[in-house]
Design a protein that fits this description.
little secondary structure, flat, 63 residues
């Protein structure tokens, strides 16, 4: 899909994403796959399964 639109994508490791938050206070559960972030707050979306979600998500506070 990206190649067809002449876009490039560089995947980052977990450690590389965690470094983005250096100097900040990570909110629990930290840097994790998006589906781990408070799944109880979301409603199921028709047509989506519980497959793997590529990428990581995190929230942090500036100190």
């Amino acid at each position: 899909m990206y190649k067809a639109r002449s876009l490039t994508m560089a995947l980052c490791s977990h450690a590389e994403v965690v470094r983005f938050f250096d100097g900040m206070e990570l909110v629990e559960p930290g840097v994790v796959v998006p589906t781990v972030w408070h799944p109880e707050l979301g409603d199921p979306v028709p047509g989506q399964d519980d497959g793997a979600v590529p990428g990581y998500a995190g929230v942090a506070r500036k100190r």
